[in-house]
Amino acid sequence: MNSLNFENTPRPPGRGVYNFQMRKRASHIVKPGRALAALLALCALAASCSRAPKPDPAARGANLPSRIVSLSPGATEIMFALGLDSEIAGVTNYCNYPPEAAAKPRVGGLYDLNFEALISLNPDLVILTPATSDIAKELDRMGYRTLITPNDTFNDVVASVISIGAAVGRTEEAAALADKMTSALEDARAASASKKPVSVMVVVDRAPGSLQGLYVAGKGSYFTELLDASGGKNIFDDSSIYYPQPSLEEIISRNPALIIETRLGENLSEADIRRIVSDWKALGDVDAVKNNRILIWTEDYVARPGPRLVLLLDKFRRAVDDAR
What is the pLDDT of residues 277-306, one digit of tens each? Predict the structure, then answer.
């Protein structure tokens, strides 16, 4: 079997905040049906290559991969953290960290992959997420070795560090990185254990200039995990889905003391931030609004399930402490 899938339990693809944000970013260029069309393009490409030499799974399985294509910015960061710079043959358009990633060949994005570019790199391992599991199946069928790395929760990311390390022969480095990440979470949890929790709402999307179309972080997301460890309390941690759409009345009734809104990758001026914050005046009875505790976060690592989650953990810790 060519696919190395280290998920312990099956889960619907694309539930994580990274996949949510990638869908948001791609929405202006990817029309309905493009994801299916992209998969069909890969099938057509596979058919056109049916008479060409295919990868030899047995031969590749005997050696560690040396031409890895990453279809996940988080996985790209993990690989660089494990010292795999020279083994990375290609990355997505969104793989921008560390700076060395910019020098790698590009194979498109999550929903607009350039399959011909991917195949031309002759990869001996392609790393994907559950959101692209259909593409993984097709690549498997074509004889390419794939590794699916879950990224919905903090534990998922730590497990992906271990699985990538095992696949590339960097088990010791992976164990050290996983331990560093886990220790940071445990240390934050211990430091906040005696403190009163601060109620927080994390907004991952909404309509421009209004409070319509709100999506917030809910139960199971790594936002909630990191908030809990930082002494925060996600007011929607009882949601049955990862990113619910609450009504304004529900937000008022739950009354967050702190609102964190993500505007990932946006180059916002101070005036832009003031305009975004001013939208929340419509909820003037909410404590976070009354006390001017509304934060706008644009850093890409906020939705980057990789080693830099420890930076997000520290950012949550400081925000929660400041809100007390």
Answer: 999 999 999 999 999 999 999 999 999 999
In three-state secondary structure terms, 148 is strand
Residue pair 283/248 in contact (Cβ under 8 Å)? The answer is yes
CA 21 – CA 249 distance, rounded (Å): 25
The DSSP result for 292-311, as a single string, is T-EEEE--GGGG--STTHHH
Tell me the per-residue pLDDT of 76-130, one tens digit each, with 9 for 90 and over. 999 999 999 999 999 999 999 999 999 999 999 877 899 999 999 999 999 999 9
Place of tokens 């009345």: 249
Domains of the chain as residue ranges with CATH: 63-181 (3.40.50.1980), 195-323 (3.40.50.1980)
Task: Say if CB 307 and CB 82 are below 8 A apart.
Answer: no
Tell the burial category of 166 from Cβ atoms under 10 Å away from its Cβ (0-12, 13-18, 19+): middle
Angle at 32 between CA 27 and CA 38, to 5 degrees: 95
Do 87 and 79 form a contact (C-beta atoms < 8 A)? Answer: yes
